[in-house]
Amino acid sequence: AVGELGARLDVYNVGQDSNFATTQSRFAPRAAAELRWPFARTMANGAREVLEPVLRIDVADSGGTDVPLEDSSVIEFDEANLFSHTRYPGVDGIEDGVRVAAGLAWRRDDPAGWTLDAAMGRIAHLDGDLGFGVGSGLSGDQSEWLVAARFAMADRLFLANRSLFDENIDFTLSETRIDWQASDFSLGSSYIFAVPEPAEGRLDRLSEWSFDGSYDLNDRWTASANWRYDFKTGRAARTGVGLDYRSECIDVSLSLTRRYADSTSVDPTTDFGFRVSLVGVGGNDGAPRRSRSCRG
Fold it and tell me: Does the first or last residue of the chain, that is N or C, have fewer Cβ atoms within 10 Å of its Cβ?
């Protein structure tokens, strides 16, 4: 069991927005208690499994101060913040009242080289509405069910899913991603479904399937391609190809992207991209480099 106590004092100076006072402050205390009870076992073949029930209670008070949510407008309800003191990504938003989060987490590490993680849970607000939009999965006095799972095998195959749904198994969001990594190529594909959420700029239902891949032509040249299909419009939404050259000194990228219009009033667009960067001078993407040095 773990207990938490905390408080924040914020001072805001707001300009060019008549909806808020120019200067305002707030004092926001909070407290929490979390109980985890893991059950672990080792199988005869050496596999290890852990099942962990979790119960968390949070109490917080924002003081009733209304401030602009500049860093907290987009909410992602996932397994990372299911048992967190807040679902807001920034510091502007504060979840008021008494909340209870309950769920399960399970993990299996297999000696064959694969791992499987799964988690599920739900949040209840004892003081009424959670205060989030419908598309977030956190509207009303109870959140929707969150179910997430991840599978990884030998650092080559990765599969992940996150879904939000209610008691009637009506999905608010479901996203699945699969990746395959080989020595000289990589392939990936994903599917996402989401209901409209105006707070996130999503005015229509989202249902898209995407694909991306890359192939190392040799130790310097890499070709790539991507494609996205919109089930709502019944046609491709975007396609693209790319070619990258990387040496010990320089990184050059060429790209061609075609974006298709989703209405008759907007024309499709084609974008050409060209980028040159010096290796080791900012923008290092962490990709493996050959050990030879750059010589003039």
Answer: C
Sign of CA dihedral 131, 137, 141, 145: negative
Per-residue pLDDT for 98 more than 70? Answer: yes
Which of the two residues, 64 and 20, has the higher pLDDT score?
Answer: 20
Alpha-carbon distance of 97 to 100, in angstroms, equals 10
Task: Report residue 136: phi and psi, to 5°.
Answer: -80, -15
Q: How many CB atoms lie within 10 A of CB 175?
A: 18
**Segment 62-86 mean pLDDT:** 83
Handedness of CA 280, 286, 289, 292 (dihedral sign): positive
CA separation for the pair 119, 78 (Å, rounded): 10
**Residue 198, SS3?**
helix
Is residue 161 assigned to a domain?
Answer: no
As for how many domains the chain has, the answer is 2
**Domain co-membership, 215 together with 73:** no
> Has residue 160 been placed in a domain?
no
Which pLDDT value is given to residue 285? 53
User: pLDDT digits over 162-191, tens only?
Assistant: 999 988 889 999 999 999 999 999 999 999
Domain boundaries, position 35: 2-154
